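Reviewer 2 asked us to include a model.

Predict the structure of this chain.
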Amino acid sequence: MQENNTFMKTRPVFSLLVSMSVPMMLSMLIQSLYNIVDSIYVSQLGTDALTAVSLAYPLQNAILSVAVGIGVGISSAISIHLGAENQEKADRAATIGIGLTVFHCVLFIIGGLVITRPFLSLFTDNPAVLDDSCAYTYIVLCLSFGSLLQIAFEKIFQSIGQMKITMCLLIAGCVINIILDPILIFGLLGFPALGVAGAAIATVIGQISAFLLYIVVYLRKPCAIQIRRKYLRFDRSIIRQIYSVGIPSSIMMLLPSVLISILNSILAAFSEVYVAVLGVYFKLQTFIYMPANGIVQGMRPVIGYNYGAGETRRVRSAIRYSLACAAVLMLLGTLLSLLIPEQIFALFDADSELMKAGVTALRIISLGFLVSSVGVIYSGTFEAIGNGRNSLIISLLRQFVITIPLSFLLSKVWGPSGVWLSFPAGELCASITGILLLNHYENGILSPFLRSAKKERQRT
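Predicted model (structure tokens):
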């Protein structure tokens, strides 16, 4: 028997958003903690080991980008169809989405074997760093099926409002990672010391464990969505709907990988220390941004369901509350980065050179945290309503179109500090663009800052 999720359009918006977002914020914080702990353990092997994992990040992020992007496409399609009370299309979207995910798993195995060493060798001449980075990357790419399938099920459960389940299972996977990291990296409890490769093995075991737990929960608990074999066939409209959001969303998440690769080439001309700083920052960034992304994950099904049901006032309310919550989190991240950057970098056993460079970078980049809350929320809004193009435009401005050219130009004048300055500039441009796009989308009917009466008149 399937559960009913009409509470999406009947429950008060703020309490609904809190109940959907808080579990995801907590799970994102736990996942961020895992990312930090993973780097802390690796840093104890030396700066070369930390650099090796940093170089592997772009390819590792490619896995996450495709998994989350397609997952968001699946979630958006399910939420909109459920809001329109079309159960069969919602079930079909979930089933086809799982099929597409399995296809992507095969592609990553092939890609991992072919491109890993050639790609990583572009960024280092140190044989030890290259070998460690390859060992880490081969494992996380070729065994990526756990990550992709876990995230696909996560997005399906999120689309029907089952945030507590996704929180518990995400935390379970992260806890398994955290427990296994020191055991496999340093060789505790009779296991061999595997170093950087041990960190990778702990990661994939945690991901596969979370995926298996999703299977158990799905089979044992009534669910508003049914994955059925009869729906596993070519359906052009469903596939287009999933990919129209999923491809832009994947590109958005791939942008940091492209950004890091390009910035690594700029920073390496000054010193490999700055490459390590950038790698550490992106680990810290997840700790700062993942709670905000938890809000986005909580609001997506609320916005998608109510948009499909024609409840535009509830959509606007959800956007307003999401913006306020994200701004509070970003302000907190800014204050921590400005006031205690030394203590933050001390977690990574930073030597004096890494500490000095890292503190400067964090203080400059953090100037863009608060304004970025608008870009993050508006990008998620467009994903929720099935408009991947506008979401992609905002993300391109945040992490590509503005940041990369400015990095090249400003680094000529201020060195590495010029690279760090390009981050807040990109966030500002993206947020302004996001406001303009939503104000003009469907005559501004969804914009939280325009008068509701005016928007309703424009619509009619």
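The chain has a mean pLDDT of 84. Residues 98 and 152 are 7 Å apart (CA to CA). We have added this to the supplementary material.
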